[in-house]
Amino acid sequence: MDRDDTYITDPDSGLEMTRLIEQDRLLTQGMGGVLPEFEALPPDVTHILDVGCGPGGWVLDIAYTYPGCEVVGLDISEQMIHYAQARAKAEKRPNAIFVQGNILQPLAFAAGEFDLVNIRLAATFILRDAWPSILLEIFRALRPGGIIRMTESDKMSVSPAPTLEKLLQRSYQMVSAMGYGFASDGSGLGVASAMAALLAQAGFVEIQPFPHPIDFSASTELHKSQYDNFIVTFTTLLPLLLHRRVMTQTEFEATLNQVRIEMLRDDFQGTWHMLTTIARKPT
Length: 283
Description:
Elements lengths: L13 H18 L15 E5 L5 H9 L4 E6 L2 H13 L5 E5 L13 E7 L10 H11 E18 L2 H16 L13 H12 L2 E11 L7 H21 L5 H15 L5 E12 L3
Parallel strand pairs: 1-2, 1-4, 2-3, 4-5
Antiparallel strand pairs: 5-7, 6-7
Helix pairs in contact: 1-7, 4-6, 5-8, 7-8
C-alpha cells in the first residue's frame, strides 16, 4: 500500500501501538510528569495540540490533570486515533479530542488556534529536510506568545553492553542513511542538538533546554520497561534491517539474544538522554 507519511515503520501496526503505549508510560514516569518543565501550567494555556500523539497517552494525561484545557491529539494512524478515541470515551475525557492528520501537510487548524503545541520523539517520522517547514506550520498554528514544547533524544548510554551499543549504532546509521536525523557518524540521531537552531530559524524566541536523563539501569524501577521497549523496538525495525542488508535474520536473532543477556546483568547501566526544548512565538 502506498503511504503519504514518512513514519519509519508501519504506523498502523498493532505491535507499534503496543510499543508506544508502554513507551509513553516510561517517558512520563522517567521525565517526572507530563509537563515537568512547568511548576504549573500557565493560566493562559487552555488549548493544546499534541503532534504525533500515537495512542494518546500524553493527551489523556494532560486532559485528566488539567480538566479546564481542551487537548487535541493529531496522528497519521487511523488505528491509533480510534484507540485513543475509545480510551477518551471510556475514561470520560470530553476535553481530549483526537483527529487523524498528516503533519507533512498543512494543518487543518486556524492560525493562532493553540496556546501550546507538544511534539515528542518525532525524529523517526520526520525526515531531516522536512523539519523547517513543519516548525513553520506549528508556528502558524500557535497564537502570539504561544509555546512549543519539543522532546527528542540524540542517544543512549549503556554499559557494559557492547552488543547493544553496536546495535544502536547500526540502527542510527541506518536511519541517517534513510534521511532521518542530523548525525551521520552513528553516535545518535542529532535532532535534540539541532532543535534550538531550528526553532530560532522558524522565528521562535526564549528558547530554553531542559535535560531529562532517564536512568534504566538494572537496579532501577524503569529497567524492565526499557528492556521491553528495546526488544519491541528492534523487532519492529527488523524488516528495515533486513531490507537494507544491515544484518541477516540469523545475525539479528543472535544479536537480540545477546542484548537480552547484557541487559539482564546485575551491573548493567543505562541512561536515555532526553532533551525538552521550550520556546515561544513572539507576541
